[in-house]
Design brief:
This protein is mostly beta strands. Helices cover about 5% and strands about 40% of the residues. It is built from two helices and 14 strands. The strands form three sheets. It has a seven-stranded antiparallel sheet, with no helix packed on it. Strands 10-9-12-7-14 form a five-stranded antiparallel sheet, with no helix packed on it. A two-stranded antiparallel ribbon has the order 4-5. The N terminus is likely disordered.
Length: about 200
Amino acid sequence: APAAWYTVASSSQEVIVGYRETHIPGVVLITPQQHRDERGSFREAFNEDHLRDMGFSAVGFRQMNISESHRDVLRGLHFQRLRPQAKLVTVLAGCVVDVVVDARPGSPAYGRYLEFTLSAENGQALFIPAGCAHGFLSMAERTLFCYLCDDVYSGPEDQCGIRWDDPSLAIPWPCRNPIVSAKDARLPRLRDLTPDDHPFLTLR
């Protein structure tokens, strides 16, 4: 079945937000209304009441991260082992190809990925549930990427992920030779993940 669009209006009827559910459970694309005039633009990046209207429980974001990336920088695909984080991500400047892989054992979509284009121009945000691997490729000379996380950073030993070029996923990144950190280049393939990489055994 195709993904569905939902529209939620605030009580003042001034802010309208579109939500599109996806084929990975819990992954939701959010399209806020953008107000533009001669000064620039304004958008509401996050509204917990709107997420509740979509059936989400309280998210309780605890940390915000911002990364800056040059063109062709690829970050990912990352997730956390013991303290998996749900995330709301958006682009403040530039543009990315954003990818989510369902790495949750027990999920009906385990091993599947979704690809989105997020940009400062379209203003879209993506809600990523805990346990999914996430990464992005910068498509601009300078990209500012914002993450709201429902838990704080738990240290390098809790970080894991999947290789960006895992052949079993065959993600069609639009850059053949991206700039990848040495750490990300050493990430395992999906099939090589061990139970220690998946301590969360049920779908959250």
